[in-house]
């Protein structure tokens, strides 16, 4: 099913859908799949809050598989059902990928969408791009024509294999760093025992135990690749200090009833609150996503790694 190019205006080319197609994947034992390919004009840049959806009806149910981008252009995939204008997300698909040329490939197990077999007819097959507005409303951007598809049999030459376990590929080298940046907090002479965390958006947080007065300091590095920022390495990236140096009008730290300093920090992941001297609590609240190959020593931290 196809659609003319250039009819998505005023939305970007990444939401200009030109075709949608469907096929089968019989490579894996016990996991026969339908594979949907959605083609748009360009995906070198992922439009924030964009949605790319392939839809079809089997039996009395209309299903969809979709690629979804959040406000930071972070991509996820899901599948679900549609009844009128009501969409119900059911869960994850088997696999989903996209390429900068605008090709989106999504595979869904047949067992999740009514279990069609050889000769089954899928009706109302079409593709649509949308814009997520406020998390609950979807503005239509572009769509293809609709058609039907008959599920084909497994080829005689196809020998299914066991689904391979998930794997991780580690790459050595090909990475550069900015120069080190000394992080400093007001009202103190020394910070010790630095730690580093990153969140899923690409932000980095350096924390350290404060000497005198006691407490915990926090520095924030905005390293999100989707946000325009400082120049690439080797130029230094400056952090924002988010330490527990907040003071009352009398010049003393604000204290809780148990006389320990309580602090709150607003971040992309929410608001964290901790007390002075409670680095263990702060560390438990910080995200634990995998940290890239950073280096830090005595309140110094290297900034943005750039993969080759």
Question: What keyword list fits this structure?
Answer:
Immunoglobulin-like, mainly beta, 21 strands, single chain
Could you characterize the architecture of this molecule?
It is a single chain. By secondary structure, the chain is mainly beta. It folds into 2 domains: 13-150, Immunoglobulin-like (Sandwich); 175-307, no CATH class. It contains 1 helix and 21 strands. It has one helix at residues 279-285; strands at 17-25, 33-40, 50-58, 61-69, 75-83, 86-91, 95-98, 103-109, 121-133, 137-143, 147-150, 175-176, 181-182, 191-198, 204-210, 215-221, 240-241, 262-267, 270-275, 300-301, 306-307. Strands 3, 4, 5, 6, 9, 10 and 11 form a 7-stranded antiparallel β-sheet that branches. A 4-stranded antiparallel β-sheet has the order 1-2-8-7, with no helix packed on it. The protein starts with 16 loop residues before the first strand and ends with a strand. Mean pLDDT is 76; it is low at 231-236 and 245-308.
Topology (elements, then pairings):
Layout: E1 17-25, E2 33-40, E3 50-58, E4 61-69, E5 75-83, E6 86-91, E7 95-98, E8 103-109, E9 121-133, E10 137-143, E11 147-150, E12 175-176, E13 181-182, E14 191-198, E15 204-210, E16 215-221, E17 240-241, E18 262-267, E19 270-275, H1 279-285, E20 300-301, E21 306-307
